[in-house]
Design a protein that fits this description.
With 297 residues, the protein is an all-alpha fold. The chain has one domain: Farnesyl Diphosphate Synthase (Orthogonal Bundle). Helix content is 71%, strand content 1%. Helix 3 crosses helix 9 and helix 14 (257-274) packs antiparallel against helix 15. It is globular, with a radius of gyration of 18 Å. The chain starts with a helix and ends with a helix.
C-alpha cells in the first residue's frame, strides 16, 4: 500500500477531530487554551493516533467504527504533545525548537508551558472517558488503565526520569533498553493495543499487537538516536547533536551508527513477524513499520 497517502489521510482526520474537541481560546481561559493549542497544532506526524486507528482496523478487518476510536486516538496525541512541551523545558532538555517552530516555553513562558502540558494530559483522560468512545465499560476501563500505565511512572514519565538521572553516566545496555522502552516505546505500544482493544481484540490479537508495538517502539527510538547524529536541524525541526551535548547514552554512542541501523532493521522485522495472524487489513501497520526505518526526520 502507499503508506504516505494513508498517513496523510488519517492525519487530516485526526486533526479535524482535535480541532472539533479542543476548546477555542476565548473567554477567561483564552491564554491557557492558546498555549495548549499552539503545541497541539504546530505540526507533527500523528504517528501514535494513526497507530491506534491502524490497530483497530487490523482487528476489525477494516470495519472499525472510527467514531469510537477517535477519542482514544485524540487522547494519545494530547498525551504525546504534553510530553514534548515538558521535555523541551529548561529543567529538562532545554530546547528552543520543536517541529521547526519555537518551543512552547519560549513563546508563553515556563509556567504557562507547564500548565499547557498539564491541561493536555488531563484533557486526554476526558476524551478517553467520553461516552462516544467504546460503549463497553469493561473495555473502556482497560483502555484507560493501559494508557495511564504507559504514560505514568513506570512508562513515559518514568523513562524520562531515568533519562535525566543517567545523563553523563556510563550505563549498561539493559539500562538503555529500559529507558527507551519506558520513555518512547510504552506510549507507542499503548497506542496500537488500545485501538485493537476498542475494536474487540482477542487475547492472541492483543499479544500480537503488543509485540508489534514493542518492536516498532524500539526501532523508532533507535532511528531517533541516529537522526540526532546524522540529520540537520532543518531536516529534523529541532536542534541536532543535543544527545551528545547533554552526554546522554544512546544506541549510536554504545554501538555505533552501522550496528544501530542493523538493530533498528531487526526490530522492524520482528514487528512484521508479529502481524502474521492478521490479514491484509494489517497492511497499514506493516507500512508504518517500514516507514519508521526509512524516515529522515
Amino acid at each position: 500500500m502507499e503508506i504516505k497517502a494513508y498517513l496523510n489521510k488519517h492525519r487530516s482526520v485526526i486533526e479535524a477531530y482535535l480541532e472539533k474537541v479542543i476548546a477555542q481560546p476565548v473567554g477567561d481561559f483564552a491564554p491557557h487554551i492558546e498555549a495548549m493549542r499552539y503545541s497541539l497544532f504546530v505540526g507533527g506526524k500523528r504517528v501514535r493516533p494513526i497507530l491506534c486507528i491502524a490497530g483497530a482496523e487490523a482487528v476489525s478487518g477494516g470495519k472499525c467504527n472510527l467514531e469510537k476510536i477517535l477519542p482514544i486516538a485524540g487522547a494519545m496525541e494530547c498525551i504525546h504533545t504534553y510530553s514534548l512541551i515538558h521535555d523541551d523545558l529548561p529543567a529538562m532538555d532545554d530546547d528552543d525548537l520543536r517541529r521547526g517552530k519555537p518551543t512552547n516555553h519560549t513563546i508563553y513562558g515556563e509556567a504557562a508551558a507547564i500548565l499547557a502540558g498539564d491541561g493536555l494530559l488531563t484533557n486526554a483522560f476526558e476524551l478517553l472517558s467520553n461516552e462516544s468512545s467504546s460503549p463497553d465499560p469493561t473495555v473502556k476501563l482497560r483502555v484507560i488503565q493501559l494508557i495511564a500505565q504507559a504514560a505514568g511512572s513506570f512508562g513515559m514519565v518514568g523513562g524520562q526520569s531515568l533519562d535525566m538521572i543517567y545523563e553523563g553516566k556510563q550505563v549498561a545496555y539493559e539500562t538503555l533498553k529500559t529507558i527507551h522502552k519506558s520513555k518512547t516505546g510504552a506510549l507507542i505500544t499503548a497506542s496500537v493495543v488500545s485501538g485493537g482493544l476498542a475494536a474487540g481484540a482477542t487475547n492472541e490479537q492483543e499479544q500480537a499487537l503488543t509485540n508489534y508495538g514493542n518492536n516498532i517502539g524500539l526501532a523508532f527510538q533507535i532511528i531517533d538516536d541516529l537522526l540526532d547524529v546524522v540529520s540537520t536541524t532543518e531536516e529534523l525541526g529541532k536542534p541536532v547533536g543535543s544527545d551528545e551535548e547533554a552526554d546522554k547514552v544512546t544506541y549510536p554512542s554504545l554501538f555505533g551508527i552501522d550496528q544501530s541501523k542493523k538493530m533498528a532493521k531487526e526490530a522492524v522485522d520482528n514487528a512484521l513477524d508479529s502481524l502474521t495472524i492478521f490479514d491484509h487489513h494489517a497492511e497499514p501497520l506493516r507500512g508504518i513499520a517500514t516507514y519508521i526505518i526509512e524516515r529522515k526526520y
